Automatic annotation (TrEMBL), chains A, B:
<dbReference type="Pfam" id="PF02733">
    <property type="entry name" value="Dak1"/>
</dbReference>
<dbReference type="InterPro" id="IPR012736">
    <property type="entry name" value="DhaK_1"/>
</dbReference>
<dbReference type="GO" id="GO:0016740">
    <property type="term" value="F:transferase activity"/>
</dbReference>
<dbReference type="InterPro" id="IPR050861">
    <property type="entry name" value="Dihydroxyacetone_Kinase"/>
</dbReference>
<keyword id="KW-0808">Transferase</keyword>
<dbReference type="InterPro" id="IPR004006">
    <property type="entry name" value="DhaK_dom"/>
</dbReference>
<protein>
    <submittedName>
        <fullName>Dihydroxyacetone kinase-like protein</fullName>
        <ecNumber>2.7.1.-</ecNumber>
    </submittedName>
</protein>
<feature type="domain" description="DhaK">
    <location>
        <begin position="7"/>
        <end position="327"/>
    </location>
</feature>
Length: 328, 328
């Protein structure tokens, strides 16, 4: 294993310390229990809290800040954070309008956030994200997995909360975005968890994992690598079958790299996906291309499509200022 | 070779088409000759043009837009663009205040931009960037290489041009930033050029290339991987020996990933570098962490330090709106 680390036990602490130092104007890191919080939560706004295992950076800590999350609870690599982190984060950032937890659907995250939700003495609700159409149940999941579409939920609900929507309304927006979002990806290589010290899975030099999860979990099948256009076409087939867009539907297209795929290839995927969506009568009205929901050093990528309406479009376009998503 | 491509010959065209589709509000791609231009150049402003081989994305095309570059000339992967691209880009974006070429110091780029500079019938100048302190001459270079510090030059000169500085003043700012900037990096893995189809170099499972270039060129030596803090300390030793900062100097610290290194590790490097710089009496007043000057799918990272003064700080902080660097 070749990684920039000092001791395996210190990876999370040192990485979060660097995040804090690099973005002191946006976020503050709290240790023991560990969470990343917006430096200046806005009074009277619903507090948005997400989190999960680390190793998916910039998700979620890179999305803490104005227009997006109020806090992110960070577990060890690929390991759910615990309820004490969620409770401490909620106490730290809530300002009286309640707390909305945005949770990726994995067994550990789901259980821990549910527990925190029940224990928390503040009005709260959960949006469960399950955008991955690859598999129905998987290694770590009952039901579909939450993957790169989580960013879309966090961005749009983040903007909704800034406009003053209340807890129930924010939850409704989040659930609506989740239903309007579908994702699926492929992996060319495995990833290496620092504490494990070796690749999560083996894969041949000419193979890809079709429908892979963001922890390297199996997808639908293992098969030889195909040209980019063929990969994109099958991913979009699965995604559009799930979303069933009306003719002329407007969508957000998010091409997400899993960590080790060059940006050059991600833009090439966007080109292929744009052609296919146009041919199927779907309009790409917004795009996001980059490594946002990663699996450490995995080579691969996913496509996410969100059906947009004027309200969601306005919320997507609203200003955001975080470490890794920033526009005005 | 596992990559998201259709045909090796079409990689650049399809990738640039995706870039254009994803960022139509910011940039326009011109083909034959190929360059990426700001959609709306600002009349009366010095036109800034950079470029080089592709494979380093987001550098340079991802930095075209308000507050940074007016155009980027894109060669094939790791191959210099040609003078006809530079001339066409200059004709396309100049608005009467002259053209400043920002060029990384490699033999091909230097020769081609010099040729374009001489052929161009518009007042122009060149800023040559050579921030890499690893080696004096190298595989593709006479003199030091231009690496991740190029982003710093492009950002600061971009802001200077927006304030109305003339061509000579913009060149002076660029030369000054280049002199105030030093970089050095290490690689854990090679990269794979699509047209070559195999790794650029071989490296053992426990080795790193210390002082690597952004095309996988050799650095100072091959050696066993060391803890992150030890790597950072030696990189900073080389960088600070070159810059010789005064006690209490203010600096920008840019931690750059070469493409396949997780953001988690880049922030960990920032933490290590921050500790060492503090111990040496250097203040980190601005930070940039991420994969900005890449070498395709190479795992590794570089550190860049720029000595900042109040003028440079103001220019660094000025608004920028490009595909990959965006703040207000």
């Amino acid at each position: 294993m070749k990684k920039f680390i000092n001791h395996v036990d210190q990876v999370l602490h040192e990485s979060l310390s660097g995040l804090q130092a690099a973005h002191a104007d946006i976020l503050t890191v709290h240790f023991d229990p560990t969470f990343v919080r917006r430096t200046a939560p806005r009074p009277g706004k619903v507090a948005l809290i997400s989190g999960g295992g680390t190793g998916h950076e910039p998700l979620h800590a890179g999305f803490v800040g104005k227009g997006m999350l109020d806090a992110a609870c960070t577990g060890q690599v690929f390991t759910s954070p615990t309820p004490d982190q969620m409770l401490a984060a909620a106490e730290s950032v809530h300002t009286g309008a309640g707390v909305l937890f945005i949770v990726k659907n994995y067994a550990g995250d789901s259980m821990n956030f549910q527990m925190a939700s029940e224990m928390l003495d503040i009005e709260n609700a959960i949006v469960m994200v399950n955008d991955d159409v690859a598999v129905q149940n998987s290694t770590h999941t009952t039901g579909r997995r939450g993957v790169a579409g989580t960013l879309v939920v966090e961005k749009i609900v983040g903007a909704a909360a800034e406009t003053g929507l209340d807890l129930a309304q924010c939850k409704a927006v989040g659930d609506r975005v989740n239903r309007a979002t579908a994702s699926m990806g492929v992996a060319f290589t495995s990833c290496t968890v620092p504490a494990a010290g070796r690749a999560t899975f083996d894969i041949d030099d000419d193979e890809m994992e079709f429908g892979v999860g963001i922890h390297g979990e199996p997808g639908r099948r293992r098969e030889p690598v195909r040209p980019a256009q063929a990969i994109v076409d099958e991913l979009l087939d699965c995604i559009l079958t799930d979303l069933n867009p009306a003719p002329g539907a407007n969508v957000l297209l998010h091409v997400n790299g899993f960590g080790a795929t060059p940006l050059m290839e991600l833009y090439l995927l966007h080109h292929c996906a744009g052609k296919t969506l146009a041919a199927r009568g779907v309009n790409v009205v917004r795009s996001l291309v980059g490594n946002y929901t990663t699996a450490l050093d995995m080579a691969g990528a996913s496509l996410t499509v969100t059906l947009m309406d004027p309200e969601l479009l306005q919320l997507w376009d609203a200003p955001v200022r975080t470490a890794s998503l920033n526009w005005s």
